[in-house]
Amino acid sequence: MPIAVAYLWRRRGRRSAVLHVAAFAGVAVACFLPFVILAPHGVRAMFADQLDRPLQVESLGAAVLMAAHHFGLRPLTTLSTHGAQGLSGRGAGLAADLSTLFEVVAVVTIWIIFARRRNPDREAVLLAAAAAVAALVAFDRVLSPQYLIWIVPFIPLVRGARGFYASMALFVALGLTQTYFPRHYWGLADTYQSPYSWYLLARDLALVAMAVILVWGLSRGRDSAAEREDWPAARPADA
Q1: pLDDT for 222
Q2: Residue 28 burial (CB < 10 Å; 0-12/13-18/19+)?
């Protein structure tokens, strides 16, 4: 949504951006309001359930803790909660908090980088959207295999060398996921079985690499002088 608003503001002006934000808010209210009226406790419970989730065993933070566990540094325990398996033990809470912090910082940074472009084109919108989704998945405290499906529609559409390298990172991540899921998932979740815990760490690092490639490509993008002159929102009102 912030990427779309920034694009509309730059290309069509403030009025268009505000109108689309209002439309988005109207749809969101229409979706939630009936449930807020009928069962407000249920709506609160839904958000509380998501915010209280522990570090899921396939997340980046969990993969790092599993690696430390194999070196005898941190004892871990697996808990089945919130419909998934999460880690408990020394460092798990800190890793979960850091994951959320990195996730928020990464996504907001992408929004800012994109918003600072004076005349973004559709390719830049796609690149920013792909980077935001990639960062959201890579640093989330919960990372189930189906989350990778969110990335698939975006990455192959990114053009140039950055799209190629990001697609290769995605291909590696998808392949590594298949090495342990679903056949060896419970061995990984319950006993942090090797070598699958190492495959998991490599998968999560591939996702981080993919996000970094996309963010780097977005930050390297520059508007040409001709594009800056064609920035509609910068034109005088009587132009």
Answers
A1: 55
A2: exposed
DSSP letter for 72, please.
T
For 61, half-sphere exposure in the C-beta direction (CA atoms, 13 angstrom radius) is 28
Query: 16 near 5, Cβ under 8 Å?
Result: no
Q: What is the DSSP letter of 232?
A: G
- Nearest alpha carbon to residue 217 among 107, 103, 124, 148: 124
Helix, strand, or coil here: 186? helix
Six token digits for residue 162: 């950055």
- Full-model pTM: 0.85
pLDDT confidence of residue 129:
94
Cα 24 to the center of its chain, rounded Å: 21
Edge-to-edge strands of the sheet including 76-81? 55-56, 84-89, 76-81
What's the pLDDT at 121? 87
Neighbour tally for 239: CB within 10 Å? 6
The identity of residue 229, as a single letter, is E
CA distance 73 to 67: 9
pLDDT digits (tens, 9 = 90+) for 130-144: 999 999 999 999 999
Nearest residue to 94 (alpha-carbon basis) of 131, 132, 68:
68
Identify the burial level of 160 via C-beta atoms within 10 angstroms of its C-beta, where 0-12 means exposed, 13-18 middle and 19 or more buried: exposed
All residue ranges of the chain with pLDDT < 50 are: 223-239
* pLDDT tens for each residue of 44-53: 998 888 888 8
